[in-house]
Structure formats: C-alpha cells, structure tokens
Amino acid sequence: MSTKEWLVLIILGFLVEVSTTADPIQILNSSIAVASEGDPWQDMTSDNVNDGIVDYRRTVEKCGCCAALRRPSWVQLTLDKTYLVEKIQIFGRKYDTSFQQFHDIKLSLGRQDQTLKNEAFTTKNQSFAMTILTPPREVDTVRVSDVTQQFDYMTICEIMIYRQADCTPGKYSANCSKECHCLSGPCESVTGNCVTATCKDGWRGLACNETCNPGTFGSNCTNICNCVSNLTCNHYDGGCPNNKCAAGWTHANCSVACNPSTFGYNCSNICNCHNNATCNHDDGSCTNNQCAAGWTHDNCSVACNPSTFGSNCSNICICHNNATCYHVDGSCTNNQCAAGWTHDNCSVACNPSTFGSNCSNICICHNNATCYHVDGSCTNNQCAAGWTHDNCSVACNPSTFGSNCSNICICHNNATCYHVDGSCTNNQCAAGWTHDNCSVACKAGFYGQGCSMDCHCDTCHHVNGSCFGSIQCHDGFRMENGFCTTEVSFFSKECPVCHTDRYYNALLSVSSFLGVVVAAVIVVIVVYVRQIHKQHAGGTRSNRESSSHTYDDLARKSTNPDHYDCLQMSNKKNNTIIEM
C-alpha cells in the first residue's frame, strides 16, 4: 500500500474517532412532550420531569420540582422527531429517607411505529439511574414505568435525553458509520437524506448512498456505459476497463459516437455506403439501411436479386407471368404488370372498385364494398345482389335473383326475372304474387293473377283461392269443397241465370202437370153434380130447391178464385167428403 493510501486511511480513522467520541447533545425540553398514567401527589405532576430543574439535593418539600405518581404508573416522553439517542438519565430525590422512589422502575424506548423495547439500566441507585446506548439507537419515545403496588408513589425529579453529536459532512447513521454522497450540503443524521435531494455523479437513492445500476453512470445515473463486451463502466465517470470502448464509440468515457464516415472498434473502419451515404457507427451499415435504390450488401455494391428492386431491395417485382423487373425502379418489360397491379413499377394496387389485369374489371360486392384487387373476390364472399362466383362476375341463373342468388323468380308463365331485384317482364307476376319483384303474396281475401279475384272469405290460398284456412264464407256465399260459392233463391231477381237451369225447368214442368190435373178433377166434379141433379128432378120441390141452392152455391164458389179453397160434396153411396 502506498504512502498516500496510508495517509488517507489515517485521516479517515481520525475523523471517525472524532465523530464517535464527541460528547452527546441533550435534546431540548421544548422538543419533548410529556404524558403519564397514575394520580399525582398534590402538585407533583408529570410535567416536572421535563421542567429543566435538577435540584434533587434538597428535600421534596423545598424542591417542588419532582413528579410523584401513585403506583401502578408510568410517564412517557415523546420527541418531536426520531433522534439517534445515546444516553438517558433519570434523577430522583437525593434525601428521600425511604428510598422507595425508584423501586422496581423499568425503562422502555423505541419508535412509535414499532413496539417499545425494555432497556436495562447501565447505572442505577436509590436516587439516580442512567442508560447508555451503544451504538446509539433511533428513538422517538421514552417511557419510565412501575407496575407494582408495593409502595405508594413513583417519584422522578427529571429525565434527560441525549442524542448523538452531529456527523461530519458526508456521514450519517449511528456513530456516523455510513456515507451519503450529496451534491451539496449535509445529509440528515438519521436517514442520510440529502437536504438538496441531488446526488453526486454515480450515486442514487434518498441518501445518495447507492451506486448506479450496472451499465449506467453519471448524473442521476442517466448515462449508458459503452464498454467492449458489455463490461460495466465506472459508475461516476463512465470509464471502461482498460479504456476499451464498444464498437462505434470513443472518448475517455466511451460516450461519443464515431464520426459519420467511420465505424467499428476505435472508429478505425471507413464507411463504404453507395453514393457516400453515412453508415452506422457500430457495424458500418448504412444509415436507415439506405443504400442507393437497387443496391445491397455491406458496402452497397451488389445489385438486387432478379425478383426485388428499390431501396434495400425491399420491394417485390410484380410483373406479368412473374417476369423479372429492373432492379433500380421495378419497371416491367413492356410495362406488363401482374393482375391487380398498375403504375410505372407495378407497385400500386388497383383502385378499390377495380381488379385484375390492367385493373380493367369492375368489383361487384355487397353494398358496393371493395374487392380484392387481384382476383376480384369480395370480403366473406358477399357478392352484390344478383351476382355469384368467386369474383362475383357471374349473374344468377334465370330462375333466381338477389343476394347469393337465394331468391326464386315468381313471374307469369314461369318467365325469367331480372337477376338483381327479381322484377318480371312487364311486371307480370305469377298467379297469387305481387310487388316489384313478385315476392309478396296477395293480401288476405284475394288471389289469382294480379291478385284481382275475391275469395269471399277472410283467408284463402293466394294462388287458387281455396278457403280451407277460414271458418266460414262471407254473407251470400256457402262453403263447397273448400271454396266459397254463390248461395241465392231460384226465383230471385238477383240471379236471372238461375231460371234457366235444369232444376228450374223440371219444377216448371211438374207445376204445369199438377195444374192440368186439378182442372180435370174440377170438371169431373161439376159433371157428376149435374147428373145427380137430373136424377132427382122428380122429387119434392123442397129437394129440388135444396139441390138448386147447393149447385148455385158451388157454382158461385167455383167462379171465385179467392173462395176456391175447398170443394165438398156428399156421396150418399159411401158417405165420404172429398176435399181439395
């Protein structure tokens, strides 16, 4: 070890010795708050233990500066902050004849955020007790207690607390054993926190006592080490072992990149980018990999392979039949681009509405969506209404229409419909159908061609008019074999055609025959009556008159249609009455 190093160690040892042997400093009474438990004797309250009066040589009656608390009791001193406490002194009455004031007292100390710990007395007699903490301890609470009831009062005249003397700048903690590396000003004696909160180069943490993480250095540890093989650099100045910087870096702390025309270890290699472009200072690659268009390799001296072109050979040739392109600008022979591509170098896709060779085909996708510029396929294969096939270029077959050609044409005489919307020629729908594309059935109660025929029921089949779905027909119609037909009287004026049907003619014939029969019966009766009258001509006058009256009465009734309700005659032979 050199003389200089020995001298440094001697000085450091001296400073440590000075800092650790300096007399402790009493904590001011104004920095202490007092609390207690136990009834005081008269005016001998707990405040007296922190009044600054230590005249313990006189009797208690003359002193008036002590605290006397009935056992069990305790008195607690709370400091205004955490101190490195080095010594605690407890004073009692010097001339207490009974010497019971310190009987079985205990000392506890520590921090409020932790459990207080009992501490043994270094020195203790009947009127004085003292504890020396080695090393000094972080304390903000001191308690003296006596839990026994053997004697009446615990008497304490004064409690004095001493902290560790201030450390020299750059030191903190117990016995000033730790270092802080504040940029300026001292650090806090207990925690080491820098007053200015700024560390020296190479240090970090609240107490600036932690070195930079490996790989970093300097102010706030924000600089990156650039040592060969990723070795760790000096945490405060960035110096590398043996001054060996990583490739592409130079300077004392390897923090400066090579100039734009050099690269590599010690910046000893020359950049060789095409057209004198700058290169990466680490490995010599060209800035942003920008070789001249059409060129590649480490020194940009090799042309792109036949299928690529342009800057860094990153573009793919897109020529008809996969032909090669010019390695510089990608132009194709005779400007023949592959399907779906256009422009001078065939690098621009067809616009969203076209596809294929020379972008000459029109996309036909659902809701006018764009198609794949190469083959015209639509997203999710959703063609526009009326179109199908892989690229939606084939119209629906003649009997279907609409989206995915999933709708059936419904035209008159099974005619074909328009493949897009299903409309029929001259709007002639098949029987039972209507609307623009003949896709809507006739409304309830109508059927047939043009939905112009009335079913005469609430619900019927829209094509043939059958009323199987209805309970009954409308008034004036009857259900016959599932259809509602006319129901009227044979003699109704509202149905003239009914008088000519075969049923009416038959009825008319029967009626005529019955009329002839009735007339014949009447004639027979008249003739018969007259014969009877002649046979009785020789009878009594009264009989003749009676017969004459009967005949006259019958004649009168026979000539009056309103009274021709009944013909009666007596048949003396069989005593019967003939009614008509």
What does this structure look like?
This protein is of the alpha+beta class and 580 residues long. Among the domains are: 22-163, Jelly Rolls (Sandwich); 295-349, no CATH class; 396-441, no CATH class; 510-563. Helices cover 13% and strands 22% of the residues. The strands form 16 sheets. Strands 1, 2, 4, 5, 6, 7, 8 and 10 form an 8-stranded antiparallel beta sheet that branches. Strands 3-9 form a two-stranded antiparallel ribbon. The N and C termini lie far apart (171 Å). Mean pLDDT is 80; it is low at 14-20, 489-506 and 538-580.
For the record, the CATH class of the domain at 22-163 is Mainly Beta
CATH third-level topology of the domain at 22-163: Jelly Rolls
**Which structural category fits the helices and strands?**
alpha+beta
Overall body shape: flat
Q: What is the CATH architecture term of the domain at 22-163?
A: Sandwich
Work out the strand percent: 15-25%
How would you state the average pLDDT, rounded? 80
Low-confidence segments: 14-20, 489-506, 538-580
Within CATH, the superfamily of the domain at 22-163 carries the name Galactose-binding domain-like
For the terminal residues, how far apart are their CA atoms? Answer: 171 Å
Helix content: 10-25%
Q: Tell me about the biggest sheet?
A: 8 strands, antiparallel
Number of helices: 4
- Rg, please? 66 Å
Strand element count:
38
